[in-house]
Design brief:
Length: 105
């Protein structure tokens, strides 16, 4: 006989659990290092956009620096120079700057 008889190995459930442990650890690390900070940053961005008001100094996603002159439900009017205003979507506002930043530029 060329092939010997195969006997079922008595495995324990702990070895099955230990094989999934690295996957669980990787998911937990992935959540705390990537997903959670990104959710926090998105929440801060939404709060900043909701708090926009006339007189705030902002930077758009295109890099344009200006002062907010009018805020509507979906759009913001930004004065980028004297008598020059552009209308942008609220989501295009990337950063709110401290007061007086434009004068120092």
């Amino acid at each position: 006989m060329f092939i010997s008889n195969a006997y079922a190995a008595s495995g324990s459930s702990t070895s099955d659990l230990m094989s999934f442990l690295p996957l669980v650890v990787i998911f937990v690390l992935f959540f705390f290092m990537i997903i959670r900070p990104q959710m926090k940053q998105a929440k801060e961005q939404r709060a900043m956009i909701a708090a926009l008001q006339k007189g705030d100094e902002v930077v758009t996603s295109g890099g344009v620096v200006g002062k907010v002159t009018k805020v509507t439900e979906s759009f913001v009017t930004v004065e980028i120079a004297v008598n020059t205003e552009v209308i942008v979507q609220k989501q295009a506002i990337q950063t709110a700057l401290p007061k007086g930043t434009i004068k120092s530029i």
